[in-house]
Design a protein that fits this description.
302 residues; 42% strand; globular
């Protein structure tokens, strides 16, 4: 019988039972693809990560990310949480980790109190520059989210597929509408036939609203619905917050900008994602960071 240790952490929060929960297997060597998928389904979280040796020894690890139904090329809170766990095990090098993933290399920065002190935050750089795809019809998006067409704000941009390693439909809505959005799963199932840009069983919607401005960051509120891939609503979605930050910067003439994004409030799991976007030689790049809180640890026998 084989035994594998796991831990869970709540990501993008400073308190237990806030943020987005994540299960991490720090040493998943020997697990098959099917076993990884079965374990992710068993945990029934938005994602579970499995750490295996890197193909390039210059990197820290290869990190495989599974949601309830499939493997993902990149995701935000799984990288932040996995970075936190591995840094806690002393596997970073001078505060840096490098993860090999399907979407590319993810660089992870670890912040501690003093030299080698308590972990404070983990920040990841998305593996790809911003890319934009098809626009989703406003009426289709509104129907999926249980909103009226008039609730969708199109002054800056229309609902659009955006990615920095993992694709989402990003749309701005009115602040009051964000709070009352309710995913209509039947509408999602019919909408994916009319809008198959993200695949036959995938239609993640990332809705956001303006929430004012801090001295050094624009404040936003967000919610993410992806019922066709098993996540009716997500408490914190770093791989959607990063293309949002990159998209918003691309609509300005600024060279860089910070965005503080609150998510998960309606679920009772408030999360804070600290995002930044900057113009680079290959396009607009984005990063996201935050804190984590350890919750569970144990082992599974197969």
């Amino acid at each position: 019988m084989r035994t594998y240790a796991f831990v869970t952490v709540d990501v993008f929060t400073d308190r237990r039972f806030g943020g987005n929960p994540l299960a991490v297997f720090p040493d998943a060597s020997g697990l098959s693809d099917g076993e990884m998928q079965s374990l992710a389904t068993e945990f029934n979280l938005s994602e579970t990560t499995f750490v295996v040796p890197p193909e390039n020894p210059a990197n820290t690890a290869r990190v495989r990310i599974f949601n309830r139904t499939s493997e993902m090329p990149f995701a935000g809170h799984p990288n932040v949480g996995t970075g936190w766990v591995l840094a806690g095990l002393g596997r970073d090098r001078d505060g840096l980790l490098r993860f090999e993933e399907i979407a590319g290399l993810v660089e992870v920065s670890v912040e501690r109190d003093g030299s080698g002190g308590r972990l404070r935050a983990v920040t990841i750089a998305a593996p790809q520059p911003l890319s934009l795809g098809a626009e989703m019809p406003v009426d289709l998006l509104a129907g999926c989210a249980g909103l009226d067409v008039s609730d969708v704000v199109v002054a800056a941009h229309r609902p659009v597929v955006a990615s920095v390693g993992n694709s989402f439909v990003i749309a701005e809505v009115k602040a009051a509408a964000l709070s009352r959005a309710i995913p209509d799963i039947a509408r999602f199932r019919s909408a994916v036939e009319a809008f198959p840009a993200l695949g036959p069983r995938r239609l993640p919607l990332y809705l956001y609203a303006q929430d004012g401005q801090n001295a050094d960051a624009i404040r936003l509120r967000a919610r993410m619905f992806s019922p066709l891939s098993g996540t009716v609503e997500d408490a914190a979605t770093g791989s959607a917050a990063t293309p949002l930050a990159a998209l918003l910067l691309s609509l300005t003439k600024d060279s860089e900008q910070r965005y503080d994004i609150t998510q998960g409030v309606e679920m009772g799991r408030p999360s804070l994602l600290l995002c930044s976007a900057r113009r680079a030689a290959d396009g607009v790049r984005a990063s996201v960071g935050g804190g984590c809180v350890p919750v569970l640890k144990g082992e599974i026998s197969l």
